[in-house]
Every structure is written in C-alpha cells, then in structure tokens.
C-alpha cells in the first residue's frame, strides 16, 4: 500500500527532468520542423499530434525514464509528418491516400442523410454545431460541412444573396453549387 502512495525521491526528480527535457524537445522540434507540426489540417496531422502526447507521457511515466528514446521517437514522428506533408504537396496520389474529403451534410434547410451516414454524424450533432456557430434560426445557415479533420463548419447566409465562391466549396463531397 505504501508503494501506491509514495515514490523514491530520485524517481520524483527523474519525472521532473523527463518532463523538462521532453517539453524542450517538443519545442525544439516544433521550431525545427515548423508551425504545421501541431496543426490539424488532416486526420493524419491529428493522429501525429496525439502520438506526440503519447510519447511524451510514456517517456515521463516510464519506470526508468528513457528520455533519449522518447526524444528519438518524437524526432521520427516529426520527420514522418514532414515527409508526408512534403509528399502531399508534390504528388496527388499521396494527397488522396492521406487526406479525407470534406462532406456536405446540411444544405439550405435539408439534412443530407446519405452524407450524414457516410460522415457518421447525427442530426443532433449538426444542430449542436449550428448553435455553437451562433445560428439563431436554421434559415440563417446555408450549409454545414464535415471537414477533413472531423471538425464541422457552419456557413451562414450573408443576407445579400451572393453566391458561394466555388473555391470555398472545392472538393466538398455533395456540393453541386
């Protein structure tokens, strides 16, 4: 029972040093690899960001903190993300392989049930996002899009009857414009 509530002083210090070195490594690698490192521009980016946290937590909480291994793992995750980002900008097949496509799930007063099924979201998810986007009436909303990251965007009507710029909806599954 006492092992459950206490720890050796050296382990306490090791955790502190591991946290310090791990966070310093994250900051340094972020500076080295750039601002995109912690972005959520794609599902892959999100997965890598979660992996960063897992590696840091695993390193900090290990019995004998393997700080060098943790920093190496972080470096390779950053490098993998940079490599995938490079490939996505150069080759369409890489972009298609890694990126999800945004999906229209609500348009001008209609829930698009087939698209909702494919995106695995419910009517209540969409309505909650409308509220979150400060829509007071459904008539205020032009469209709702599930983005490549799983985030949900609510596009408000402008009130001046302008058409949506096709570039804004480029690649959105279900948009016919």
From TrEMBL:
Protein location: Cell membrane
Bilayer topology: Multi-pass membrane protein
Record Gene3D superfamilies: bsu07140 like domains (3.30.240.20)
Segments forming domain YetF C-terminal: 90-173
Keyword Cell membrane assigned: yes
Key words of the record: Cell membrane, Membrane, Transmembrane, Transmembrane helix
Keyword DNA repair: no
Transmembrane segment boundaries: 12-29, 41-61, 67-87
Family that this chain belongs to: Belongs to the UPF0702 family.
Name of the protein: DUF421 domain-containing protein
Organism, scientific name: Algimonas porphyrae
């Amino acid at each position: 029972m006492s092992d459950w509530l206490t720890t050796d002083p050296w382990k306490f210090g090791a955790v502190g040093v591991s946290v310090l070195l791990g966070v310093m490594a994250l900051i340094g690698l972020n500076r080295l690899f750039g601002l995109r490192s912690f972005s959520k521009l794609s599902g892959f980016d999100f997965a890598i960001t979660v992996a960063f946290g897992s590696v840091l937590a695993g390193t900090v909480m290990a019995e004998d903190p393997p700080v060098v291994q943790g920093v190496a793992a972080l470096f390779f995750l950053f490098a993998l993300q940079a490599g995938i980002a490079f490939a996505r900008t150069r080759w369409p097949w890489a972009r298609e392989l890694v990126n999800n496509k945004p999906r229209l799930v609500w348009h001008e007063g209609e829930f698009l049930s087939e698209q909702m099924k494919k995106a695995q979201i419910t009517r209540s998810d969409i309505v909650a996002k409308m509220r979150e986007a400060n829509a007071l009436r459904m008539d205020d909303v032009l469209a709702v899009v599930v983005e490549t990251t799983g985030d949900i965007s609510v596009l408000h009507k402008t009130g001046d009857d302008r058409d949506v710029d096709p570039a804004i909806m480029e690649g959105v599954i279900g948009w016919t414009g």
